[in-house]
């Protein structure tokens, strides 16, 4: 199938996903139960230190914003060693693993973040990106729709859904509505151009 995605935005995790991981929704992870009994990507401390986890996560974001993936990964893993239930660090570690094309482990981290932060749309969006990248388009669509249900105003999530529906070969009212929303609301010129180029009107 022809790949109709805008070149400059192909399967990149939007920056908003990281910003959301720092928002008020992250406090829910402090009451959450550990979703996986056999967590293997870090050796977590028995005593949780959420403040240290938050500090390490912030350091990781500093490295990530300048493109230093290895140091960012180290900081996010350190955050999870301090508190394995700190959801934002799982989401951000997942982003690093995604960028390194380790999609299996990225999905693991995003799933962990999703369970710890059920009201946060970012992990669903990121899981959608993983499944889209690995060709599991139906699962990608499900996660993008879930992200939109949690954050309906986010045009990036709606654009990701539109792109995946196009890749899946859909020609539905849902896709036409998403196309019109991208044209009207998106500020990224390449996405607007892409949406205008879609030939999906019957």
Automatic annotation (TrEMBL):
It comes from Mucisphaera calidilacus. This is Lipoprotein NlpI. The keyword Lipoprotein applies. Keywords: Lipoprotein, TPR repeat. Coiled coil: none annotated. Transmembrane segments: none annotated. TPR repeats lie at residues 121-154.
């Amino acid at each position: 199938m022809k790949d109709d995605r805008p070149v400059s935005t192909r399967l990149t995790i939007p920056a908003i996903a990281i910003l959301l991981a720092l928002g008020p929704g992250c406090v829910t992870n402090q009451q959450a139960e550990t979703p996986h009994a056999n967590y293997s990507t870090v050796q977590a401390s028995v005593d949780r230190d959420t403040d240290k986890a938050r500090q390490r996560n912030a350091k990781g974001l500093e490295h990530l914003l300048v493109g230093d993936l290895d140091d960012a990964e180290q900081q996010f893993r350190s955050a999870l060693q301090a508190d394995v239930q700190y959801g934002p660090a799982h989401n951000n570690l997942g982003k690093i693993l995604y960028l390194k094309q380790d999609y299996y482990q990225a999905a693991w981290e995003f799933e962990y973040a999703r369970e710890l932060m059920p009201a946060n749309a970012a992990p669903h969006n990121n899981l959608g990106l993983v499944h889209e990248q690995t060709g599991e388009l139906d699962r990608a669509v499900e996660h993008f729709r879930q992200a939109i249900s949690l954050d309906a105003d986010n045009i990036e999530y709606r654009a990701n859904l539109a792109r995946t529906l196009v890749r899946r070969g859909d020609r539905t009212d849902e896709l036409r509505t998403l196309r019109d929303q991208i044209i009207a609301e998106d500020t990224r010129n390449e996405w607007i151009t892409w949406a205008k180029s879609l030939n999906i009107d019957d």
